[in-house]
Design a protein that fits this description.
- The protein is α/β, with parallel strands linked by helices.
- Helix content is 32%, strand content 31%.
- The chain contains 3 helices and 5 strands.
- A 5-stranded mixed beta sheet has the order 1-3-5-4-2.
- Helix 2 packs across helix 3.
- It is globular and about 55 Å long.
- This is Lipoprotein.
Length: 129
Amino acid sequence: MRSTALGSIFIASTFLAGCSTYSSNMRVGNDISYASISDQREAVRTIKVYDTMPEGAEVLGPVDAGRCHRSFVEESPSDALVMTDLRIAAYTMGADGVTDVSVEKTSALTKNCWYMLDARGTAIILPEE
């Protein structure tokens, strides 16, 4: 009886451990961001996306954002929308840009979503001119 309970706990904890791989900065569907419209506009204008690390840039740290597709009667989240969320997240960190950006579509059934569109990158500060 005890080994069955321990086995059940192990299986449950292993299954739930997969939940932590998703962005903590997750929105559902195509809802408007939690940031004010002016902050969204400023983030999109200010935060540049770089293919490679600019010379002299300083790494602030990892940044991520995700969108959950929960209902087939709603429009699927777009790459552009999750990139806006990523820029807003970098903006709140005080970054000037992001680099090493990837957008990935993964299963998210453990988050009550059909799938997750997850953007990850590295927030950077550019040297002052």
